[in-house]
Amino acid sequence: MRTEAQTPRYRGLDAWPPREILEALLERQFSALAAVRAALPAIEAAALAARDRLRGGGRLAYAGAGTSGRLALLDAVELYPTFGWPKERTLVFLAGGERAAFEAVEEAEDDEAAGRAAGSRLGAQDVLVGVSASGRTPFVLGAVEAARERGALTLGVANNPGSPLLQAAEHPVLLDTGPEVIAGSTRLAAGTAQKVALNLFSTLVMTLLGGVYDNLMVGVVPTNEKLRRRAAEIVARIAGVDEEAAERALRRADYEVKTAVLVARGLSPEEARVRLLEAGGRLREALR
User: Hey, what CATH class is 225-286 in?
Assistant: First the structure.
């Protein structure tokens, strides 16, 4: 596997001056970004397909092990506070369970049966993103294969060309990062590429589903003072009112930003929610 290969470029690394080690590590980070750029068409196609499933009420699920699993977990956790994506429509299948979020449970990645059991929880409206640097992780393969058998939309994100995960998923996303500076340490370039690709995928999906208006975070859940100020600024900017009026609208709308924008424009909270429902949650359409 390319991610496990030792390249002559970095031999003798432990004897290099510290600055040169850092330069080498950073060099490979730029290569990771280039790998994501090459995958943009695949990420776009996957996001468009995911949008169509999720519009029908489906769930967005992630499957991974080790570093890849924790990166998937990080992406999933951010969907609710950033975009207001319902917690009950987000699932994370992490090899080794919750314990693996805080410590390495390396043997769990070999449990294909556990992966299949997780993937079998999904159905035809759901989307599963499987992430594995090697593209061979049994837990992730089991989850993707079982989910696809049940009709779920499946994405496979891997860093090795031709790997089984890319063949098993309906939407393969190859992030060809090549050998690592430290051979096999896929928490480095492979992990960076996975994090960026997941950011791009989920942000595009949430934008398409109405979580963004203009370039503003209209799905934000304002659970602290900083976010409440941000919500008021967003409502004021879109509705064309001052921040005091925006705050009043937010209170009437139970701090739902999109609802508050329409309230500030003169609708009741009930009317605003109906308008948004008719617009599929997309504020731009609701404002027409």
Answer: mainly alpha
Give residue limits of the domains in the chain: 2-208, 225-286
pLDDT in tens, the chain (288 residues): 777 767 888 899 899 999 999 999 999 999 999 999 999 999 999 999 999 999 989 999 999 999 999 999 999 999 999 999 999 999 999 998 888 778 877 778 889 999 999 999 999 999 999 999 999 999 999 999 999 999 999 999 999 999 999 999 999 999 999 988 788 888 889 999 999 999 999 999 999 999 999 999 999 999 999 999 999 999 999 999 999 999 999 999 999 999 999 999 999 999 999 999 999 999 999 998
Active-site residue set: 78, 109
How would you classify the pairing of strands 153-158 and 90-94? unpaired
pTM for this one? 0.92
Domain range 2-208, CATH class: alpha beta
